[in-house]
Amino acid sequence: MGKVVLMQGNEACVEGALAAGMRLYAGYPITPSTEIAELSALRLPQVGGKFIQMEDEIASIACAIGASVAGVKSMTATSGPGFSLKQENLGYAVLAEIPLVVVDVQRMGPSTGMPTSPSQGDMMMARWGTHGDHPVIAICPSSVKEVYDLTVRAFNLSEKYRTPVLLMMDEIIGHLREGMELPEPGSLKIVDRPTVNHPDSKRLPYRMKPGQLVPAMAPFGKGQRYNITGLIHDESGFPTNSTDEAEAMMSRLMHKISDNYDDIKDVVTENLEDADIAIFCYGGTYRAAKTAMEVAREKGYKVGIFRPRTVWPFPEEELREASKKLKRIIVAEHNYGQMLLEVQRVAGRDCEIGFVGKWNGGVNKPIRILERIEEG
Amino acid sequence: MSRQELRLAGSGGQGVILATVILAEAAIISGKHTAQSQSYGPEARGGSCKAETLISDEPIGFTKVQNPTFLMALTQKSLDDYGPKVDENCLVLIDSALEVPEDMPAAKVIKLPILETARTEVGRLQTANIVAVGCINGFLNITDAASMEKAVMMHIPKGTEKLNMKALELGKGLAEKWLEENGK
Known about the structure:
The structure holds 2 protein chains of 2 kinds. Chain A is built from 13 helices and 15 strands. In chain A, strands 2, 3, 4, 5, 6, 7, 8 and 13 form an 8-stranded mixed beta sheet that branches. A 5-stranded mixed beta sheet of chain A has the order 10-12-11-14-15, with helices on both faces. By secondary structure, chain A is of the alpha/beta class. In chain A, strand 7 (137-139), helix 6 and strand 8 form a beta-alpha-beta unit. By secondary structure, chain B is α/β, with parallel strands linked by helices. Chain B has one domain (3-181): Pyruvate-ferredoxin oxidoreductase, PFOR, domain III (Pyruvate-ferredoxin Oxidoreductase, domain 3, 3-Layer(aba) Sandwich), CATH 3.40.920.10. Chain B has 6 helices and 6 strands; from the N terminus they run E-H-E-E-E-H-E-E-H-H-H-H. In chain B, strand 4, helix 2 and strand 5 (91-95) form a beta-alpha-beta unit. In chain B, helix 1 packs across helix 5 (145-153) and helix 3 packs across helix 4. Chain A binds chain B through residues 4-6, 31, 115-117, 172, 175-179, 284, 287-288, 290-291, 294, 363, 365-367, and chain B through 21, 24-25, 28, 33-42, 60-64, 66.
């Protein structure tokens, strides 16, 4: 067993990122994510990496994208207002297929909102914030240990599928300190992007070889010259207006995620075996839901928990299957009802859907979830 | 007691958050489960600040205090805000300069000169949070004296070790003296 240390969620994000191989952090400080920048500034130089405080949020994600193109695992972190600003470049990274981890430690919005208050109000922005059809991988941790583990997973998925991965934290978990068992050195599975380098060749940088999930990536600055653009491009990396080529590119972009759903999905369930009520929750809200479930079970209610850790792509198959055996699903989240819409869409025909939201900067408490369970 | 819910309140800059971090660290050193969190406004100094540490033998679900078993207040405003919210089983530690609000339940209230001790005996008001940590461990026995020293040392700036160890010791002394005088 590894050593148990007291760690903050934001700190665990940095340590997980370093363990996954992050060697560049570019960011602009914003509450409640600032500790991620602070600790990155301290830790990256110790491992030969670089920390850069950029002039703003847009430049921060641009810098991280640039570093990743050069072959360095990169991360940027922010909160709602900064996440809004990063959306354009996020789309660029999706289309240009650049591995990247973007952390959003969610706070109460809209706009600058309540900077130190918890929220999960950016869940739909994570899905649809950048324009155009695009696939998204978004992950939500519920404990300090999970922040560490899922940051590693975020990097691994990002490298494997050459796509930005969103680590959707919230103030509750970002600012929580609790005991965390450090993994044994060498026990983590680390994934690196497939790379290739032909200094003189006319290799097509976006051509897939048979059996590849994504085209191998040539690190910029190592010899091979090629074009990267946010325009729809062909296998050469240069823009195209051909509808056939556009369709092929979009199809590949969508399918690299949807065809690998089983690898990307991550759902944790508790006590669903005999449950007729399930609490659907994710991130920091899980902690209140868990306590509510325990109290409700003591009172004789058959309550379980359905908790996606990969929130996007939405765990449709798992939720649909679970909903067939349930009478009621109570969605608990720190917003006015965002993932609620997805739960209604997927499970609304098979069971009754209840909601416990929170949108005043306060914390969703177990008692509110318990009351909804007892309402019957 | 298998679960303690500690709430510390004061003014931003008094080191209330750090005090709860040190208490959480002490809990970890003692092999217990803990959850530490805080709430504060956007300002770094002068606003209201509330920080919490849960300590339990069992893994912790909900990470916030629901019904405090211990409250410390270092300013009148924080006592007025959080005092009335405790029940009669809560142990309340307040600075001697404060007055107990009328609408506070009949909780056990202990008044100790935390700020004065830091200012005059340690010689630096900024060590009030460490004096408080010493007091709190004296009353709640979160961990042994050596482990508490270790927890403090892990979280203070270099060069302040002597000062903070003195503050911790004086805080512990305040609690011991109170317990002796009150026959506990």
